[in-house]
Structures are given as structure tokens and as C-alpha cells.
Design brief:
heterodimer; A: 383 residues; alpha+beta; Cytochrome-c3 Hydrogenase, chain B; three-stranded antiparallel beta sheet; 16 helices; 8 strands; 48% helix; 12% strand; B: 450 residues; mainly alpha; 17 helices; 0% strand; globular
Chain lengths: 383, 450
Amino acid sequence: MVTSRDTSANTHFAQAPEGLTTQEMVLNMGPQHPSTHGVLRLVLTLEGETVVECTPVIGYLHRGIEKILENRPVMGGIRYMDNADYLSPMLNETAYVGAVEQVMGIETPRRAQYIRLLVGELQRIASHLVGIGTYLLDLGAFTPVLWCFRDREGILSLFEALGGSRFNVNYMRVGGVLHDFPKGWLAECEAFLDTFEKHMDELETLITGNEIFEARTQGVGYIDPQQAIAYGLTGPMLRASGVNWDLRVNRPYMAYREIKVNPQVRQEGDCYARYKVRIQEIYESIRLCKVVLDQLPAGPISVRVPVALRPVRGETYFAIESSKGELGVYFISDGSEYPWRAKLRGPSFVNLQLLPELLRGHKMSDTVAIMGSFDLVLGEVDR
Amino acid sequence: MHIAVIFGDNIGTQLLSGIFSWDFLQFVVLLLSAFGFVMTSAVLLILAERKVMAWMQDRYGPIHTGPWGLLQTVADVGKLLLKEDVHATRTDKAVFLIAPAVFLAPVFAAFAVIPFSPYVSFPGTALATGIVYYVAMSSIDVVGVVMAGWSSNNKYSLIGGLRSAAQMISYELPLVLALVGVVMLTSVLTNSGIGTISIRDMVNYQSSSLWPGKGIGFFDFVFEGFTPWAWFFLIQPLMLIIYYTCGLAETNRSPFDLPEAESELVAGYLTEYSGMRWGLFFLGEYGNMTIVSAIATYLFLGGWSGPGVAFLTGLHNPGWGFLGNILALAYFAVKVYALCFVFIWVRSTLPRLRADQLMQFAWLILIPITLGNILVTGLIYLIVNALGLPTIIFLIVAAVINWAALIGFVWVVRRATVATTMRAQAPAIRARQRVAAAQLPEQAGVGGGQ
């Protein structure tokens, strides 16, 4: 199943002329490196500029989040989920509280579900913006990243108005959400979405038609659909390989049972397709946000749960479509105030497995092009 | 012993008379002013780059140091001067220390042939081989880069240095060949049929010709010596584009900044440098930008010519002549910094090429096109000459063909990009067909769900 087409194409590098010997070079890329997106370390074996072997070394950002969750009351653990995939805290929290609600059999009010969807989609936009911006920075384009961060700033400001904190929002609660919208927030959100849509068109004009960008990404880092499934890829990575799989559609949860999502799929399977899927998902998220703003139901934002929450004894697996893919929480409760175990299935961690396989035979410049298209968040890989 | 035999007793006298001679004094003053110009230009460009990029990227740029952040670069240079000169262990010390100087010296040296206005210039501008000298100087830069890359004892530096060697040598060729086209034009314009590679003469060819003569006062004032319709970029626009592209590659600027590709090679050959040694590389880069823009201005945009320059200097009055020279300096600066602005603009717009694409672009596209341009220009000249037609016909025909070639060039580059992309995509396309046949997505049983 694993193809070796790239290595075979580059075998002539090994055949040096008579009397000359070439030597492979081992290059430590990271953990302190501008484009390893945090603290990933890649041990690259290079032959000239061609990658022969790649070994990712992870764990530099390990903070033991899963262990911390076992040592905090359920409600206290929500805040630590923010730090797992630090680019999409809202979605992480949703996964965790969703798992607890599932094991307790709580159905959240409709309004809470809609709010979760709204902030979740905003968070997806923010995460994809960082993904696209840093990807372009990896490819050497300086401007997109700043435009992306400018718009992400708008989303973070909305979160600040909503939950009091820009980054570690700590907004989800078992049974609902923390606050209802403050006065004027919805109008602000709508205004933001309108300007943001214009900014997105601008960004696309800058990047998408660019020949250099296309030459750098099209046909680079091709992932076979079968390979993608075999390695358990999820999210934009999987959909860019032509596999139509989106948990929001295929296993709808919460408000996604009522609001239909158009999954964004592309067939090429290369870096360009992964970039393009993210762009399309941003547009789709804007649409979803606008739908939610139109249809927001009235009612309570939370069900009453006891302050000292004791989930019933049991275990469950709850997965949501996070910005990077399937973010699952395997939650085991022994009936006490503390989870007995909360295992995270992080999309970045699973997606990272494919990297060494994919890099083999590519040029060193393509290393960053491919790695950037994975949109890794090391906080979630190392947890 | 030997020295005394050769020079006799008056060696001291000879040296002293050499040092205190008028020529030497002039040389020192000009050297210092060249140094001052490069430094000021670099400092201004660094600030301009940060401000212009900030403007394009919807942010402020430096605002705290001095009014509008004007003193930011001054503060930066001060910081660099005060920093410790760090050497990594096991560097090749002598080479490591001398590399920044080897990089920076040719940049200063190249300024020797750069005239700033009809009268303000270094003695070197009289050099009849100005363009060849400039090209020679800009080729030496690569030595400094390779030395830096090799001596740093760092793998990123090594890769950066070697990439840079390959890149700068490859782009040297189309750069020179693009200039040859312009040199051929000058040989057509003279009566003798012998062209020039002196920069000053190049400017004169573009500014003094093709204005019929004295007549109405105001038009004389504006158009005497200012004939934009005779600027060579109208006749050879494609060569300007190619020269400028190669200039980007020569100065290691985006999108050809692979040697110092931040996202891959950390800082390329600069990785192990810090303090003022790093600053020297930085100044050299910006000095190079100025020179590339200046040469493009001379050869394609009429140099310092502009409304009023030739008229005022032609009055043979010290006061008006001085004003004319100031005007010339201003026009020159405006043109040079407009081209520098394009450098900055390009940097904030384009991503970076891959090393093999870079080579492909130089050897498969730029060099054949520039060679073809030389051939076509020569052929047209021969044909026009054989038919006994006037020079203006030659210029018009050459211009039409070159403009057509420019459009063709853009088309070819687009096509080449698409073609390589399609070739690279072939496996992906095959797989897509396979997927369509097998209807794979429906079986996508990714484990989990609820």
C-alpha cells in the first residue's frame, strides 16, 4: 500500500561518478526551527537536497494534559483542554464536555447547542487562518500571515467579549455554556463576518492564482486516498485526498443534526488541495455562522447540573470534527468527582504519522511545504 | 635591502607626495562619500522596507523610535555595533571573519562607476568599460557567501552557501546577456557603428538624441535632454524585466531568497553570524539592491535625465548649473528608489521558489530568451542596414518585436508553470481516476464515530 514512487525517481543521486564518493548528511531540523510549527524535531537524512529518511521526534511540549484531567474535577478539567490544540480551544472544550454529557446522558438545550456551533465554527475559521497564514510563511510569502492574523484578531476579540478571555476561553460547561451573548455581540459578529468575507476574497486573490505558489504546492506531497485511510488521517487532510468524510455530516452531533454542512472535498490529494480545502471550509464556516445567527433559538443556555459534578459510572467515546480532523475523547468515569481516564484522540498526532512516509524522496524545500500543509499543532501532538 | 635598492632613498618622499597629492585627496573624499551613500541608502532602504511592507500588510511598522519610527534603523545599527562578536566553536576562523568583508567590498567597489548627475561622480565613471566592471564586481559577492556558508561549521549555512553559489552563477549569465541587448542598441545609434559600455555614454544616448532643437522656451526647458520616448526600456522592455528578475536573484531577494530561506534553512549562510558581521551582510544586500536599481535606471530609464536638467546645465552659469545638478540627483534618486520600491513590493507579494525550479527558470527560460534577443536584434540591424533604411525604423521594428516577446514571455512562463505542475500531478490524476473507478469514499470506515 505504501508507495515508493518518490524514492525510485531519485536513485540516480546515489550513483556518483567513478572515484567520487558522496555522503549522506544528517540534519536536525528543530526543535528550535522557524517552521516546525512549535517544537517538532525532524531528523532528516539528506542526500544533496533530497530527503532519504525522516524521523519525527516528538514530546518536547508534553505537559501531561491527560494526567492532569484525571486529577481535576470534571468542570475544572475543561480549562486544560484549551491547551491541547491551542489554536482551537472552543472545539477542544466541546469534545470534552460532549463526552461527559454523553456518559451522563444529558441533552443540552437547543440554544446552547447553537451557541456551541457558532463559536465552534468561528474557532475553525481562526484555526484555518493560522494554518493558511503560517503555511504561506513557510513558502516564503510574508504578507498572508499578517492578513490572516488580523482577521483572527477579530474572532479572538469576539471570544473575549463572550467568555472574558481571548485564548484560553474556558467557555463550555457540562450541560451548556457559561454565558449568554452580551448585548450587541450578535450584531458585532455579523459585522465581522461581512468584513471578513471581503478580506477572504482579498486573500484568495493574493494567493490562489499565484504561479509560484501553485508550482510549489501542486503535485507536491501527494497522498493516495487508500494511504490516507490506512494511516487514519482525518479532517482537511483526508478530504483533500478525495475521501468524503466529515463527522459533522457522517456522524452529526449537537446542532449539526439540524444544520446541514456541505463537506468540502477535493480530489488532487496534494498540498494545494489541502490548502484549498481549508479555504473552502472557511467560506463554509462563514455560511454556517450566518445560518446560526438567523436561526438562533431562544431558551436556556444550560441545564442545571450539580456544582460538584459526579458523572455516573461508565465509559464512552465522543468525537467531533475539529479544525484539524477527528478530535475524540475517550472518557471513563468511576462515579467519582474525577474522571478515571480521559484519553484524547488528537488529529494532529495521527496525521503526523504519515509525514516520514511522505517526505521520502522530496527535496528539502518541500519538507516545509509538506509539513506546513499538515497544519500540525504540537500542543496537541505532545499533549 | 631590496626595497631601498629599487626606490633609492627617496621612498619616503614619493609616498608622501603620493598621499598629499590632489588626486589622492579627491580619491579619499569620494571614497568616503561612496561609503556614506551606500550606508545611508542601506539605512533608508531598511527603514523603507519595514514601513512599506507594514503599509501593505495592514500594520504600523516601527513607530516608537523617533518620530514615526524614523530612527529605528539607527537604533538597530547601534545595537549591532555593541553586540558581542560571537564565533561558534570549530569554525574556520580566518575565513569566517573575512567573509563579510569579501561580501561587502565589491558592493562599495561597484559604486566607483556610478555617476549621480552630469557632474557629480567618481573618477571611475570615466571608465569606458563601466558595465563590465559592474558585472565583475557583482560576481565577486558569491565568494563571500560561499565563504560564510563553508566556514560556519553549520549544515544550514553550508546548504545555504552552496545554493547561493549555484543561484548567483546561474543568474549572472542572463543578467549579462540582457545588458548585451542594450549595448547593441547603442552601437546602432552612433554614426561610427561602435557601441559603448560606458555608463555615462549610455545615459547620454537616451537623453540627448531625438529632440529636434531649440524652439519654444517652455518645451525646451522640459524636453531638452529629457526624451522618455528614447529610453531603452521602450525598445527592449523584456530585457528590463529579465535584468530586474536576475537582479532579484543576484541580491538574494524574494522570491529568489533561497540561500537565506528562513523557513527551511533558518537563516542560510547567515545562521552563525551575529552583531556587526551580520550587519555587514545586511548592508551589503541593501547596497546591492541600490546598485541593481541604479544600473537599471541608467540602462533602461534614462539615468538622471529629467525636465530641466540639460537646459539648466547648458546655460553655462554656475548657479543654474548647480541647480541643474541638484535636479539631476533628485531625478536619479527618484528613479532608483522607485525600482527599490518594486523590490520591496515583490518581497511582500510572492512566495519563494524551490531550488530546482529556480535553476530551471534560469537555464531553460531566461538564457534562451536573452540569447534569442541578441540574435534577433542583430538580424534586424543587418536587414535594416542592407535595405538602407534609417535608424528610427530599426528602433521601431526592434521595439515592436520586443514588446511582442514580452507578451510571449509572460505566456511562456505561465505555460511552463502549468506544464511542470501537470507533470508533477500525473500520479495524483491517475489515482483520481482509480478512485473514481473503485468508488472508494463510500467504504471509508474511519474507526470511531460515536
